[in-house]
Amino acid sequence: MREVVTVQVGDFANFVGSHFWNFQDELLGLAEDPGADPVFRTAALDMDVLYRAGETHQGVATYCPRLVSVGSRGSLGSLSSSGTLGSSSAAADQAHVATWSGNVTRSASKPHEQNLFLQSLSEDQNPSTSSGPNNSQKSIEDKDLIASLETGVKFWTDYSKVQYHPQSLYELHGSWTDFDKFDNYGAGREVVSEWSQMEEMNERLRFFVEECDHIQGIQLIVDDSGGFSSVAAQYLESIADDYTHTPVLLYCARDPVSYGSRRNQRESIIRSLHDAVSFSKLSSFSNLMVPIGLPSLSYFSPLLSIQDEKRFHSSAICAAAIHSVTVPFRQQHVSPASDLAHSSGNLDIGELVHMISDQGRLNMVTALDVAMPAPSLTDINDLGNLQTSLRSLTPEISDDDEDPYAIESLVVHGAMDAGGHRASMLQVKDYVYSAFEGRPTKPKFSHLSVSQCPLPIPLPFPSIFGSSIGRHGEILRDHSEGTRPKGSLDVVSVPMAARLRSSNAVLPFIERRSVSLQKLGVARGSLGSQVLRDWGFGKEEVEDMGEHLAKLLRPFYPEMELTSDSD
């Protein structure tokens, strides 16, 4: 067994995670559905990598994500912090303080009501409470569910259909905190230091890690746009201390709304310093870092209709990309014949980290590119070929992707051939290798992972697919219907391609943060230096952060290394 433990920190990270786990839940259901595409039953994906088997106190078997989710107080909506398997916290409702014998006044907010989608899940789990509608009526109801989600998602739990273990969901306590102002690294640093909740978060992670037979790594999805980046940095530091030899793969996710517009100079300086400090701290305690999230996704693909103001939409794209690049972690080690038939190129997190960050320039900041849906395998000179369809989800990177020192990991799963049928492993490999041969500058090293299993589209997926997308995600050549968005009911699966890329394309992303810290945070008496002092950073710690960012730049500027040695 090569288990992966997942950690989600921050509200948008949990929005992403909710979609991610819905994909996994859909895969589990389709693998047992005799009416589903046979490719899901022969996917050669080991779901035990991400999930743990157990049972409740009543002896009911369970299968839950190996997950720790950290969010703000009240971010769970109608879901209890004890998860979907936890007992109702009647005991917790009884206010009891051993050192207090006086009267106790209890204040409780009105619980959030379940939306239409969650109500339908409850009915499906308890058929006796529903009237058992026929298929046509069910189809109408499903369309209503999608419509309600498009207009009514407030919490990431509003569209989650996964069972969560009682140890999985953790809310940062303290109703006095104004989370609307929890928008910079300093705010988060103050919260963590005052609440001293890190040990409880560590215990929850330890619960999942210690029951693993042979953990391959820890993957974190972090909302680094505000105070949660500080919470995550301290969590990562604890992880680095407790699990020294366990690889850590970090996805730093931002939704388009978080970019916003800065109204004055002070806000711009605070945002720039936040980006620099957050990047320095988070990268210090991870082995491979993948920034995700563009200022706008509305123009991400002409085949998709994405509304930037909806986290329900933007998080779905991020989750699909993360699902795709993690497919190699779950591919089973099977016999050569089966491997050739269904999947190839499996990796674990440690192997990916070594391949991407320990070769080439020794760069640990990686760009993420995705094609959703991936085009069919047509003539290599077609404008819709796989290489040109990949679009970056990493912000502030260079458009120039021709780098002779680049290291790439490409994953293609569920690809279709020119006839609209599922492509074989050999077809995909031949197509990709031909595309590499046609590139002006080849990367130093490229790894290819292939699976025939596409991305399943569950019911609570947003309505982002255009009318030029077929039922199985193939790109239809007849565009006469325009690009009217279709519901997720119309698309049951999508072929995907995703690429992690370590190259000089990420240089602007790193350089901007290094320059911001040097220009804004170092000068004595400046507004920036005062902001950093207010956040609790002394001069030496600021210098250490600056040195760390300079270290991340050195692989791209060898002369910096020479200067450092001579000094």
TrEMBL record:
Protein name, per record: DML1/Misato tubulin domain-containing protein
Bias kind Polar residues: ranges: 121-138
SUPFAM superfamilies: Tubulin nucleotide-binding domain-like
Keyword line: Mitochondrion
Region entry Disordered, spans: 121-141
Family from the record: Belongs to the misato family.
Annotated GO biological process: mitochondrion organization
Keyword Mitochondrion: yes
Localization per record: Mitochondrion
Chain ranges of the Misato Segment II tubulin-like domain: 2-122
Domain DML1/Misato tubulin per the UniProt entry, residue ranges: 152-330
Entry-linked InterPro entries: DML1/Misato, DML1/Misato_tubulin, Misato_II_tubulin-like, Tubulin/FtsZ_GTPase_sf
Primary localization class, coarse: mitochondrion
UniProt organism field: Eragrostis curvula
Gene Ontology CC annotations of this record: mitochondrion
Signal peptide: none
High-level lineage: Eukaryota, Viridiplantae, Streptophyta, Embryophyta, Tracheophyta
Gene3D superfamilies xrefs: Tubulin/FtsZ, GTPase domain (3.40.50.1440)
